[in-house]
Amino acid sequence: MGRKNKKRGINKTTLQSLITSILRQNPRKDFNYKQLSKQIGIGDDNTKHLIQIVLNEMEQQELVFTVSRGKYKLKSKSTIIEGIIDINNGGNGYVIVDELDEDIFIHKKYIPNIVSGDKVKISVFPSFKKMKKEGEIIEVIEYNTKQFVGVVELAKNHAFVLLSNPKIHFDIFLPSKEINTIKDGQLVVVTIVDWGDKKTNPTGKIKEVLGYPGEHQTEIHAILAEYNFASKFEKNIEDAAKHISSKITPNEIKKRRDFRNITTFTIDPYDAKDFDDALSIQQLENGNWEIGIHIADVSHYIKKNDIIDKEAQERATSIYLVDRVIPMLPEVLSNNLCSLRPHEEKLCFSAVFELNEKAKIINQWFGRTVILSDHRFTYEDAQDIIINKKGKFSEELLKIDSLAKVLRAERMKNGAISFERLETKFKIDEEGNPISIYFKESKDAHKLIEEFMLLANRKVAEYIGKQSLTFVYRIHDRPDPDKLDVLSLFLKKFGYNLQTENKKSIAQSMNKVLKDVQGKKEANMIETLSIRTMAKAVYTTENIGHYGLGFNHYTHFTSPIRRYPDVLVHRLLQHYLDNGNSVNRSEIEHLCKHSSEMEIIASKAERDSIKYMQTKYISQFVGHKFDGIISGVTDFGIFVEVKDTACEGLIRLKDIPGDFYLYDEKNYCIYGSQTKKTLTLGDTLKIKIRKVNIEKREIEMVIINI
Predict the structure, then answer these.
(1) pTM
(2) What whole-number distance in Å separates Cα of residue 675 and Cα of residue 375?
């Protein structure tokens, strides 16, 4: 009886201390006031009520937080951090925190209705030093995904939108008011009106009905919608673009260096409409060559922070899908005003170099120009002239090609790495169906353009960089040493030697491997793995050089029609040529970061469109046999790439005949538990297409013989 009286007289300060101790000892568990009363040993109602009061006060003081109604956890300032969540196929996640070297593991039971890329606040559980850090999400700070694409599953008074992304582990509920305009099985775009919680689905609202899965236009628009890309410009932006004057006044020409009487031409893909670069060439009286690299002067037509500029900032890049381009700028600009079409006067921003016969730079000049392109070459046209040494402007083209080859040789000698992967292309009929798959190979005509664009980008960056002014750099960090060691061990299995002692030896031995592997069965796989070993190039104001190109300074100056950083570079370069002061670094860095992020998203959309078209193409060959090469090995199966089409499909381990196969991660292979037969990356197989799901972009295969 005395003990109960003693407990009944407990004060708030003591209670807070006891509650804190219990919560600290059980960081992964939540408690309500009844459970805490039991832990403390209190039975009377008055003190239980006091515990609830103390909990409320502790929440106001941000000492605890509410997990669900009436349930609390300790909120320790030292363990509350923010980061970006990345969720895997299994539903578990990792929170990436800029300030930490190690990601924080989040078990799926602690993950609410969120998706990869969302910004979250997490509580990190106390752990022993050698244990992997774990935590739970206590708040969603920002939902990164604005809309979702899925298939309608209609019920009587409601519907669900089923999402195909394996990393999203919820479906979206549609209430009765949303189902009047949709039909079962349709592909739709939805936005979220209520994210719900772990126990309830998010509630959505129909934004757009795309059509039915499998229809070409529906699938392409679904890819764009999934990454939140607008396929069209708003009317006010289109109208603003149409009102931009195309007239080039005599006064404007006076402000510029005039190249209209100097031989100038463009070289672009046969189906290109946005010609954003041209080359001019003339021999000077001293025998040297003046090469002009002329880039569309987009910044003349769109002004900082006007309506078109803000839209271009947001888009940051054009998107190149298999059957269309989603431009960064309205077509009146990208395909008309700014496009360097032949026999039309055009305004440019140019980098002009005086080169001797050994391609050594004698002089350089940067500034605004006016040009008149004499001819439009396709890459095929230019390549034909380079091979046969005759044709229109053959002398000029051959001279530029010879100078480009010298520049390239010098660049490779100085530590550049030569990645030359084949680009997958499609021949498509009028209805959007793929007729055939072919590969775009980089030939001399492509390399000619590449070398002079690299020269302009490097020299512009170098010119500003040496003045220590705020600028946009395209940087590429050194590869991670651990990744290099893994790649080196893997290459040894194929008889290739990658030296990792220093920067130059890495570049030289990497180039030798890439050269030696050409034409061999493992070529594409080794090129892919080598690229994955490299860091990702990004935009930033902090220059560290470009490792892959072997440059100390590098930027993007040459494609302002399709890349917003190039527009920024033009503006900054002109500002500094006019003796302007260094601009605000944080503003430019913000735009750099956004452009880097949008570049990644655009490349994902482009890859998805290729994968969609590949599955659509191969779907006509279900039951057919092909030669393939193992392109990936996992604990659930092997990925095989069909020769001649690069269509990649999955063969599940359970479907491989003759044995029970196990995964050997260290040696990039699987092996039979009885026969010990191994299947490793690069091995060739005879396979059959078993099943194709165009909507999910999945190809299932089986092995015919091992």
Answers:
(1) 0.84
(2) 64
